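Weekly sync, protein design subgroup
Attendees: M.S., D.O., the rotation student, P.L. (late)

Item 1: inverse folding check
M.S. brought a backbone from last month's batch and wanted to see whether the design step gives back something sensible before we order anything. D.O. pointed out we never logged the input encoding, so this time it goes straight into the notes. Structure tokens as presented (98 positions):
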């Protein structure tokens, strides 16, 4: 049985939502606390967490920095494969060794 079109993207969104929620809870933050830190209203935080396709690059950066999200979580959400991420990290590491 094949999966419906867009299934992988939906799974990535769910994983992103789960990671953001876990990071928020781990830091003892409510959505209202996060909204204060991000400078947006609480209902918008809920939308960003549960529907991350609408998030801007600046808002994503702020969210990542505020919650100290793992880079791999964000990169996978953006559509990069683990292999692409590993290759990029190796390139960065090689560049810093020069």
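Designed sequence read out in the meeting:
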């Amino acid at each position: 049985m094949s999966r419906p079109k867009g299934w992988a993207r939906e799974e990535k969104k769910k994983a992103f939502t789960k990671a953001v929620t876990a990071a928020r809870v781990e830091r003892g933050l409510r959505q209202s606390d996060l909204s204060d830190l991000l400078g947006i209203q609480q209902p918008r935080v809920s939308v960003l967490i549960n529907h991350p396709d609408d998030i801007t690059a600046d808002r994503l950066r702020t969210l990542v920095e505020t919650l100290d999200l793992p880079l791999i979580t964000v990169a996978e959400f953006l559509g990069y494969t683990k292999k692409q991420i590993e290759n990029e990290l190796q390139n960065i590491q090689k560049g810093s060794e020069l």
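Discussion: Residues 21 and 77 are 15 Å apart (CA to CA). The helical segments are 7-26, 31-38, 42-50, 57-67, 71-77, 82-97.
Action: P.L. to compare against the previous round before Friday.
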